Structure formats: structure tokens, C-alpha cells
Amino acid sequence: KKGTPQGGILSPLLSNIVLNDLDQWIASQWHYFETSYPYTNNANQKRAMKGTKLKQGFIVRYADDFKIMAKDFRTAQKWFFATKMYLKERLKLDISPEKSRIINLRKNKSEFLGYLLYVVPKRNKWVCNSRISNKKKKQIKLEIKKRIKAIQLSSTRKNVQLYNAYVLGLRNYFRYVTHVNIEMKQLAFNLSLVIFNRLKSVGKYEVPINAPPVFTKFFKNNYRTFKVCGIYLFPLADIQTATIWNYTQTQTPYNQKGRKIAKHIELNKLVLGEIKKLLTANIPNESIEYLDNRMARYSMLNGKCEILKEFLPASELHCHHYIPKGLGGTDEYENLRIIHKEIHRLIHMTNKQTIESYFQKHSLTVEQVKRINQYRRACNLEKIKQ
Questions:
Q1: Cα–Cα dist 110/134, whole Å
Q2: 146: Cβ contacts below 8 Å, ≥ 6 apart
Q3: Distance in angstroms (rounded) separating the CA atoms of residues 300 and 310
Q4: What distance in Å separates the CA atoms of residue 295 and residue 312, rounded to the nearest whole number?
Q5: Distances 105 to 89, 174, 201 between C-alpha atoms, Å
Q6: Which residue has the higher pLDDT, 3 or 380?
Q7: How confident is the model at residue 309 (pLDDT cuts 50, 70, 90)?
Q8: How far is CA 122 from CA 131, 145, 191, 288, 307, in A?
Q9: What is the pTM assigned to this prediction?
Q10: How far apart, in Å, are the Cα atoms of 243 and each of 9, 120, 176, 178, 327?
Q11: Half-sphere exposure of 143 (CA within 13 A, CB side)
């Protein structure tokens, strides 16, 4: 048998390994083409190259699904046959005749990873626009209906949080669609009767009043939505278009400077992904105020531990009450601290041998120990001596 399992977790990784050669070859044909003349800047080089017979084109690829953008039909034909031949002769791969074709984006639309791509005239040039593909819209409708039905049948915080996690995932993925707000409003309108009829008996339909910080961070807070189990459902119609910033080529994991840039740029994306995980986390005995404020504080800190100052994935995160509930502490935002789970255990430890082993494991600095002792003092626990 040939190929990798459809939807398997290894499939994208294996595709990247095999098709990296294709990426480099396509880039060498135009974007990274080395000219014999040493041009002083890239703009002059590209201007000169446009007067040659070189194939101007750019590849966009995810796993084994890719598009090559070309300026005209003749150039697109060259790319089509050259790529087909390269894959066959160099990589021993065949393309799918049903899925592989040349599309004129001025006349037709092309689907890619749930996006529908096309171009429109603007100021004497053509600009790429995007919408959500019809296939993806059908999937979204079915999934929303399934999750709303689950809330109706079992009106629990867990089901509401699972719904919100799904809507937040849609927002994160499709926020760069050119007309995403129009698309989502249409979807919300088509689903409005189903949502209203199923939730009118289990929730309250209103404009959010004193919405939690996580809600106001991602939504404009002026759309009516249902409140079930004290939690507002994220409104589908309130998903807004986000600005796409240019990708910096200096961002790379392979050198120190590139890693610093990558870490800064990717942090917000990581935080969004971890917030989605926090939404689906099951903590049955905690209040809604605690759950909302935990996510709000995590978001405010950009996902960093308040003691180690390192990024925390949801699986390593503990939310500490600065003043314990047993000593009169509350679930208010100001009383919560986001810390690493092992540091949280260290704050509450009383066994000296265990404390020493944790110290050796984490190589804590004087400042970090000072902060831990501050937290222990608030818990009426003995100070740790380094």
C-alpha cells in the first residue's frame, strides 16, 4: 500500500519531509533565483527577471495540499507540467488528475483548506479576497446544531464550554477571511431559529451584562446571546475580520535571532490555543467566576507563570488562590495567580526533603524563592530557606 492514513497525525509531518524538496525547487525557479549580475537590492533584481522567460510563481502548501500562484495562463501551464514532471521523476509521486487543474481566479474561485479564494479589481490591479467554502459552511452548521442539542439535553457548564471552545476555534481559524463577518452573520441567521427554539427553555437571551474578560477580549459585546448555567455563549455573528500582517523571513527556529522573533510572534497564537483547551477543561467544583477569571488572568499574562516567567501550556497550569479560601480568600481576579503546577505544589509543601528535591529540579533563583515565600506567607506556611 502507498501513502499515509487520511487524517493521521503523522501525515502532515511526513508530507513536509518528502515535499520540502518541492518547496526548495519551486523557490529556486523564481523567488530565490540566483542571477549572474549582483543587483544592489531585491526590487531591481525582480524587475529585471520579469523581462526574461523565467516562470514567475509562488507556492503555498499545507501537508500534501498546495497551490502555485502564477500571473497568467501561459505561465500557469508551464508550472503545471514542470511540477507534474518534477514530482514524477524526482520524488516518484503522481498527482491526482481530479484535484489538479489550472484555475483563473478572475473568473472562478479556488478552494484551499476551507477558504474560497478569488481576485477582484482594485486601483488598476487585482487583489485576492477570500470567503468560507460551501463545504466548510455545511460542516459548521451540522457541528453547531449538534453542540446546541447537547446543551438542550444536558444544560451543564461543560457542554456550554465545549460550544464556546468550538466557536473560538472558528474565530481563530477564519478571522483572516476577507468577509468573515458577513459569512458568520449569514450562518448565525440560518441557525438562529434552531438555537432559539432549543435554548429558550434552558437559558436567557440577552445582550451580555458584565461579560467576563475572556468574552470581551474576543468579541465586541453588542450582540444578544444565550446565557446558560451562568455562562454566555460566544456569538457566531460577532466574529470579526483580523488584519493579516506580512510574514518576516527572519523568523526561524534555526538561529538565535530568528528564535527570539518567532517566540514573540507565535506567543499570541499559543495563548489562543491554550485558552481553547482551558475552555474545555472539566473542573466541576469551581465557580463560574473562578473559571472566567482564571482564563482572563492567563490571557493578561500572555500565558506566563507568575513566578518562573515562562510560557505555560494548559496541561502544566495551576491557578493558585493567593489568599486561600479557607482563610477568607475569594475567586476574584485579583486573588488568583497563574503558576506552574509543580511550583504550586511547592508553595503548599511542608516536607523538607520533598522541598529540597523540587529546588534541585527547577534551579530556582533568589528572586523566585522570594516570590514563593511571599505566597507561602499568605497561606500561613513556614518560610523556605534556600
A1: 12
A2: none
A3: 14
A4: 13
A5: 29, 20, 47
A6: 380
A7: confident
A8: 17, 38, 34, 48, 51
A9: 0.73
A10: 30, 18, 7, 9, 47
A11: 16
Torsion of CA 342, 345, 350, 356, to 10 degrees: 0
Beta strands at 115-122 and 57-62: parallel, antiparallel or unpaired: unpaired
* Alpha carbon distances (Å) from 304 to 119, 168, 267, 332, 370: 41, 21, 10, 19, 18
pLDDT of 48-69, one tens digit each? 888 888 888 999 998 888 999 9
Q: Looking at the predicted structure, is the pLDDT value of residue 6 above 70? A: no
Report the C-alpha gap between 104 and 106 in whole angstroms: 5
Distance, C-alpha 92 to centroid of its chain: 34
Cα 196 from chain centre: 29
Question: For residue 25, with 0-12 CB atoms within 10 Å meaning exposed, 13-18 middle and 19 or more buried, which class applies?
Answer: middle
Q: Is the separation of the CB atoms in 305 and 320 below 8 Å?
A: no
Domains of the chain: 1-102 (no CATH), 134-238 (no CATH), 280-378 (1.10.30)
C-alpha cell at 170: 472558528
| C-alpha–C-alpha distance, residues 73 and 95, integer Å | 20
Q: What are phi and psi of 265, to 5 degrees?
A: -70, -40
Cell readout for 77 is 501551464
Question: Residue 354 and residue 255: Cα distance in Å, rounded?
Answer: 38
